[in-house]
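Model it.
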Amino acid sequence: MTVHIVKLCVGIDSIEHLTRFQEGRRAQFEALGLPAENVHRTRHRPRRDGDVLDGGSLYWIIKGFIRVRQTIIRLDHLHDDDGGKRCGLVLGPDLVRTELRARRPHQGWRYFEAKDAPPDLPAHMQAGEWNPDSHDGPPPEMAAELRALGLL
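Modeled.
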């Protein structure tokens, strides 16, 4: 049964900022002769690793909303400078925009059942630009607030 992970994207203000950050990190890895992958380090390995690796994604909370997700490809065993064990969430290269979903901040990561995950935005909205003439409804942040109030 697929399970996702939801995590606060600390220090990132937008999806574009996350994109630039990950591109820079991949370039650093490549310069060191390492595979140019998106690896997010965590302290603990998910106990439900089989469910996470069964098509799970990492849903990023940016500025109080789940905005984007990345597929979790694998979980690597890592070590820090002090010899402590860590887990590397190896993420797919694509940032898939999702329907905005308000989410309170929390420490660490949480499991996120597939039934609770926000749907992906349609392909024509993946670029992230809202066009008021497109008749796609209100801007994404306004739609999320209306949804939270039960008005949409």
